[in-house]
Design brief:
Leucine-rich repeat, LRR (right-handed beta-alpha superhelix), nine-stranded parallel β-sheet, 6 helices, elongated
């Protein structure tokens, strides 16, 4: 579809009527032509469920974009020029093959929704904190071991989805997120949660299921529901436990122990 798509984009660029939407969902597209950058009036682009492995640098020329959907492709990298899309409000890069994000990724001042789930991302760039309007970030099913403290600058954040990663704890600095309502840490390597984070007044849910290293006292309270769990994590009793336990080495989880026993 490469040459025909190039011709189609050229036609749209030459049209007297400005093109504001481009919906190419599930069209078996394996490459996006560089002339996409000619469509200066685009605000909405849906390229989800295709076969894209990369994007042309010219995508950064479409600075009017507010919505860019690229989920369910085969993207292995994103051009640094994506950082030019300062008007983005929604960016969906879920279900791809990204191992890292481009240098400087994150300075989207108008972005409210970001989905990077189901990739192979090992770390987030520091600039991820430069998104003051961001309300929801989905980072589930990656290879993250920790979060940058710069995420504490995401003052509008309400939903932080981190399930199925390798995270052991959260930065205490996240306690500055005064709008945060939900944290999902299901299936990680969490042992303890900083009590300062648990005490965020707007927080109504923190999912900690399937964390083999989780302290037994937290597990006991989690089994009794979110209300009981949050009350415990905000209690003086837990604060004392955290201060005693926080610097202790993390025990090997059950699965790793079984592997060692078989050797």
């Amino acid at each position: 579809m490469g040459s025909s798509l190039t011709k189609e984009v050229d036609k749209l660029a030459e049209s007297k009527e400005p093109t504001t939407e481009l919906n190419l969902h599930e069209k078996k597209i394996s490459s996006l032509p560089p002339n996409i950058g000619k469509l200066k009036s685009l605000t909405y682009v849906n390229l989800s469920s295709n076969l894209l492995r990369t994007l042309p640098a010219e995508i950064g020329d479409v600075r009017s974009l507010t919505t860019l959907k690229l989920f369910n492709n085969k993207l292995e990298e994103i051009p640094v020029e994506i950082n030019n899309l300062g008007n983005l409000q929604e960016l969906n890069l879920a279900v791809n093959r990204l191992q890292k994000l481009p240098k400087g990724f994150g300075g989207f001042h108008n972005l409210t929704f970001l989905d990077l789930s189901y990739n192979e991302i090992e770390e987030l760039p520091l600039q991820v904190g430069l998104m003051p309007a961001l309300k929801e970030i989905f980072l589930s099913h990656n290879l993250l071991k920790k979060l940058p403290v710069e995420m504490a600058k995401l003052k509008s954040l309400r939903k932080l989805m981190l399930s199925n990663n390798l995270i052991e704890t959260l930065p205490v600095e996240l306690s500055a997120l005064k709008e945060l309502k939900q944290i999902d840490l299901t299936t990680n390597k969490v042992r303890l949660i900083p009590p300062e984070v648990a005490k965020i007044e707007t927080l109504i849910r923190i999912d900690l299921s399937d964390n083999p290293n989780l302290h037994e006292k937290i597990k006991d309270h989690a089994r009794q529901g979110q209300t009981v769990l949050l009350e415990y994590l905000r209690s003086p009793e837990y604060f004392d436990l955290y201060e005693v336990e926080k610097d202790k080495p993390v025990d090997i989880d059950v699965k790793e122990k079984k592997k060692k026993n078989k050797m």
